[in-house]
Amino acid sequence: MPSIYIETYGCQMNVADTELLLGHLGQHGYRRAGSPADADVILLNTCAIREHAEDRVFGRLGELARHKVRHPAVQLGIAGCMAQHVRERLLEKIPFVDFVVGPDEYRHLPEVLGSAIGDPLVAVQLDRTETYADIVPQRERGVRAWVTVMRGCDKFCTFCIVPYVRGRERSLPADAVLEQVRMLAADSYREVVYLGQTVNAYRSGTVDFAALLRQTQAIDGIERIRFTSPHPIDMTESLIAVMASCSKVCPQLHLPLQSGSDRMLAKMERGHTVAEYRSLVDRLRRAIPGIALTTDIIVGFPGEEEADFAATCALVREIGYDSAFMFKYSARSGTKAAKWPETVAEEEKGRRLQAIIAVQEAQSAAINRALIGSTTAVLIEGPARRRDGWHAGKSPQFKTVVFPANGTRIGDLVQARITGATAHTLIAEVEESKSSRFEQFKS
Ligand code: 5AD
Ligand code: SF4
Q: What are the structural domains, with CATH classification, of the chain?
């Protein structure tokens, strides 16, 4: 049986795509290898969102080239967004790569692998309809399963490469999604996270994203439902109402802001103003008390002046996000913004990034500290990373909670009292443990 080793870069969609690739190749007689040394095929599932992501992959390819010199029969391939973005250039730059497969070509990977020996192959057609709805991913065991419900993006924010490398928006049929979730529940998963580049743009026939969540709520065995990443302009009133009324839909939302300046939002073509975003946050907080909000911020976008950046810092403070991912703008060839002159020097981008990180870190720490003394439900996921004899899990708000294991087991849903906090972790003690152990952890 040939074996494949896949290394994943980038976002959760790519992690889910790796599971999809493993499922598909598993059906075609491949087994999963634990390391490059054990593999007949080595595949890097790549990200193209910022230059840094691509640089990391080029670096890794350099290392794998040495492996290939020693093991010439090994097939080395590149999948994912960078495969789509860089395409032929990858083969010019890295002649030892055997194949390049874009995100809509995964179905054809078994044939590509069958014919790529000695003859580099590039499969990078985008397909407006491919959803892989019929392929069962080979998922990591655990309490949480990631379920891709839509692919692609039609928004074309001026900075973003995603619509070019992932193609047009398309959704899985609702029946296929719900069937997957039923199978996951039967397989003892307790939480599903719906994934899509603009997940709340999901639509299949008459079923929009709000309806999909409502139907998921009815599936026994699933206790928690989350989704990422929504776009602010697709946060409909009916979606907010479903989040408020469905007990399993967790009080948590990743709501990318990008900038707190109307001028920048317009140049980014985000489709909303600061006032509209603020009003959305107000409606969410009124409907879902205690909702945790997180965001994405870009600093140093072309034309961003000190006043625009100050407006972003002020809005980040005002909204009070639980946490945020913050990035320096990185020009991506093929996007609209890449044609505009960069006006913010690299060092200045760095300064702005550090400044906004400091604002957010202080905020995250303060928000978490305010939780000390309260209790929260925690679904236990596994051992805590840095403390022996401790367990870790997530609160409904998707905060990491760690506590002395004290006889609790992975898969338990426990009530924990928060005794300490950092900007990224809540420290707790278990108060009471409900018996909700999962079949998959019985042994
Ligand atoms: N440069 C920097 N950050 C980017 N993002 C997307 N494109 C770029 C880019 N060209 C960020 C956005 C997005 C997140 C996934 O990555 O903040 O929400
Ligand atoms: Fe990129 Fe904008 Fe689509 Fe998000 S909504 S994937 S930022 S184009």
A: 3-123 (3.40.50.12160), 141-250 (3.30.750.210), 256-269+281-370 (3.30.750.200), 375-435 (2.40.50.140)
